[in-house]
Amino acid sequence: MASDIKENYIKALFYLHQNNEDISLSDLGEELKVSKPTANEMIKKLQAEGIVVSKKYKPIRITEKGKQRAAEIIRKHRLSEMFLLQIMRFGWEEVHEIAEELEHIKTDKFFDRMDELMGFPTTDPHGSPIPDKNGSFNKPKYKRLSQMPAQSTITVKALQDSSTDFLLFLNNKAIQLNTKITINHIEGFDGSLTVSYDGNLDVVLGKPICDRILVDEI
């Protein structure tokens, strides 16, 4: 259990690093729903292992070793999500919580076989890239649906938000990865989009929704 908690910290540090190289103890505590003293105790342990660099009154920085370790955990998580969806037929709104448990399995052969059975997928069910065995991955430069011009046709490629509520909303709208969407109109007042896709005509999507859908123009 202690090692599971440590891995959760490493993963959280990596995600926070994506937004800002300098990570505050407050942001880390908020991300993991723990107090600053609790987070600080773990940071001391991670620094001793070379995962982070942390000095008093200075922001935390994740090291190259830390990034590599985080990528290994993320690989396990995203492979697990894809396995649950592709092989076990769970919905994309169901896979995250189960994968949170599976990612802590230590046997690499388990995930290597999982990867092979699925034909070596490069993305998870929400379009996020799966790191390779060396921890490397390419992050495509998709745009937000809200950034696209009227009359353009795009393909849904990934999601900025994979929360259960958001995924259930998309299920209700019959929007999934690779859905082709045509933007009919952009409302100047609030940025909402009127779109059509797969026989669904003139569907209105609010800007907060469109901000969370990542797309590629056809």
Structural class given helices, strands, pairing?
alpha+beta
- Fraction of residues in helices? 40-55%
- CATH topology (fold) name of the domain at 143-217: SH3 type barrels
Output the radius of gyration.
19 Å
Please report the first level of CATH classification, the CATH class of the domain at 143-217: Mainly Beta
Q: Please give the number of β-strands.
A: 8
Q: Looking at this structure, what is the CATH superfamily of the domain at 143-217?
A: Ferrous iron transport protein A (FeoA)
Number of H- or I-type helical stretches: 8
Q: Give the averaged pLDDT, no decimals.
A: 95
Strand share of the residues?
15-25%
Shape: globular
* Termini gap: 46 Å
CATH-derived architecture of the domain at 143-217: Roll
Order of helices and strands: HHHEEHHHEEHEEEHE
The order of strands across the largest sheet is 3-8-4-5-6-7
Biggest sheet, in brief?
Answer: 6 strands, antiparallel
List segments where confidence is low: pLDDT < 50 over at least 5 consecutive residues: none
Write the topology of this structure.
Layout lengths: L1 H18 L5 H8 L3 H13 L3 E2 L7 E2 L1 H23 L8 H8 L5 H10 L25 E2 L8 E7 L4 H10 L6 E7 L6 E5 L2 E6 L1 H5 L1 E5 L1
Antiparallel strand pairs: 1-2, 3-8, 4-5, 4-8, 5-6, 6-7
Helix pairs in contact: 1-2, 1-4, 2-3, 4-5
